[in-house]
Amino acid sequence: MTQYIYGKNAVLARIEKQEAIEELYVYEGMKDQRFLARLSALKFKKVSRQQLEQLCGNPNHQGVVAKIQEYKYAPLEEVIALANTQEYPLLVMLDGIEDPHNLGAILRTCEAIGVKGVIVHKYHSAPLSSTVAKVSTGAIEYVKVAQVANLTTTLKRLKKEGYWVVGAEASGPLDYRAVDYKTKIVLVIGSEGYGIAPLVFKQCD
Question: Which of 19, 117, 178, 181 has the fewest C-beta atoms lying within 10 Å of its C-beta?
Answer without folding.
Answer: 178
